Amino acid sequence: MTTAQVPAQRPEAPAAAGAAQPRNTAAEAALVPAVDVIEDATGITLYADLPGVAKEALELNVERDTLTIEGAVSLPVPEGMAASHVEVDRARYRRVFTLSKELDSQKVTAELAHGVLKLRIPKAEHAQPRRIQVQVA
């Protein structure tokens, strides 16, 4: 009995608000990582699930108002062994976001731990909430 390996196809989900459509040609096919976006008064925090991506294989770019997250998956196989079944046929992740003008893309911080990328993007000075003091005349 022979079995054929057929890559799983996920239906294309509509893009989230603020997310740019990824380029999806055969040469650039990539997995779209799940991302949680949390906004507070001082900025936004993104949590992207990137299992199998090492820090060295992760690329983050901000160009004008576009944030691009890309990472290559590297799952080591012990010497002398070969994978008998592979459920994920693409070896990289890619996700592109359009950033609001209220965010300060010069102050982005990033941490990668246990396959989860945490990006913090603070709001620009002009978009920060501020308290105005009233003077008594």
Layout of SSEs?
Elements: E1 35-40, E2 43-49, E3 53-63, E4 66-73, E5 92-98, E6 109-113, E7 116-122
Antiparallel strand pairs: 1-2, 2-7, 3-4, 4-5, 6-7
Protein described:
Residues 26-137 form the SHSP domain. Pfam families: HSP20. Residues 1-22 are annotated as: Disordered. This is Hsp20/alpha crystallin family protein. Belongs to the small heat shock protein (HSP20) family. With 137 residues, the protein is mainly β. Helices cover 0% and strands 37% of the residues. The strands form two sheets. The protein has a four-stranded antiparallel sheet with strand order 1-2-7-6, with no helix packed on it. A three-stranded antiparallel sheet has the order 3-4-5, with no helix packed on it. It has a domain at 37-75 and 89-127: Immunoglobulin-like. It has strands at 35-40, 43-49, 53-63, 66-73, 92-98, 109-113, 116-122.
Question: Could you provide a short overview of the structure?
Answer:
InterPro entries: A-crystallin/Hsp20_dom (IPR002068), HSP20-like_chaperone (IPR008978), Small_HSP (IPR031107). The chain has about 140 residues and is mainly β. It has no helices and seven strands.
What order do the strands of the largest sheet run in, or round the barrel if closed? 1-2-7-6
Radius of gyration: 20 Å
The CATH topology of the domain at 37-75 and 89-127 is Immunoglobulin-like
Strands, count? 7
Q: What is the CATH first-level class name of the domain at 37-75 and 89-127?
A: Mainly Beta
